[in-house]
Amino acid sequence: MYGADGHVGYATAPGFQNPSPAPPPPYAAPYVVQYPGGTTRWSTGLCHCCDDPANCLITSCCPCITFGQVAEIVSKGSSNCAVSGALYTLLCFIGLPCLYSCVYRSRLRAQYDLEESPCVDCLVHCFCEGCSLCQEYRELKSRGFDMGIGWEANADRQRRGIVVPPGVAQGMTR
After folding, report:
1. What's the mean per-residue pLDDT of the chain?
2. Which parts of the chain fold into alpha helices (H)?
């Protein structure tokens, strides 16, 4: 049967209304991965090593230097750059520096609420050690740390940066 508007449907008697069609199903958003706790993205990608060519070169030649710098900042000075770098070098001789360095990647992610990407920390360090050290270095640098001066000097800079400016008298007086 045809309705009053010319479409196929049910005919109704005068004084009766057509039953309304069922409402469309609610819109379902596409599948989105939400990170627990509202994690944030890294400031640079894992393979963007050449964003900082000097660090890329140093990390390629001597990753213990970059690791020591990252470890000192992430541990907030509780581990010395030289000691961390030396321990990293010793672990290189048995082929397991990635087990040591992935711990600091996890700490860095926890401190800044960074997403665990592209995969779990230990896998990133085992298969992309140089790239992961460069990414951690760039992340700390983008957060305002001067990686060459260590934790104490960075903490001192931050303390001096929080100084409240002196009050200024309002109005124009001579």
Report:
1. 80
2. 53-61, 63-74, 81-93, 97-112, 121-127, 129-142, 150-161
